[in-house]
Amino acid sequence: MINLYDFCSENRSGLTQPSQLDKYTIASNGHMLIATISVSNYQPYEGNNAEIILKLIKKIDELSFKDKPAIVWPNADQCSTCKGGGTAKKTVCPECDGEGEVSFSNYFNTYFIDCQTCDADGDVIAIHPSATCPDCHGNGTVFKRPASVDIYGVKVNTSYLRMIIDQPGIEFCPSPDDFKLFYKFGDYAGVIMGMNV
Ligand SMILES: [Zn+2]
Ligand SMILES: [Zn+2]
Description:
By secondary structure, this protein is mainly beta. It folds into 2 domains: 4-74 and 147-193, no CATH class; 89-126, Chaperone, DNAj Protein, Chain A (Ribbon). The protein is built from 2 helices and 16 strands. The chain is globular and about 70 Å long. It binds zinc ion (2 copies). One zinc ion binds next to loops.
């Protein structure tokens, strides 16, 4: 099952939630785009590169795709968020409100100290039986950054590739000249921006 929210980002580098663009539903974290024929009533896309995205999606129909190649993954470490279990939930720390520090004031001064509840992280992490770990997407392992894998001559970030690689029938179309890797499976298609290294 694809959860389009997994492909969104928490910050402004991508979309914070899936959006409607033309007849498609799209999601993107700024480095990877996924699109499908409209699945639900998400909000209309409000970004300023709608035409570029539409062009990319429409281009996919003209490309010829190849089967999933054998992949050599780099070594991975256990995910510290979920302790390897693949399930965890992050919530904003109630003590510092996500700031990572708390302040104390007396008559003379205001002091800021690291929040002890969240270890100055701003997030409280709890192992959660049914929530996919946001840091490893349920894999239980994370790659040292920046880790990449070569797919037909395009180097892509392992974390992004892992989000789709096990989808049945996945196929790829490399575009090494502009560092893009197109992919499609089932009713979904998209592109991963490759690493220019
Ligand atoms: Zn994890
Ligand atoms: Zn805190």
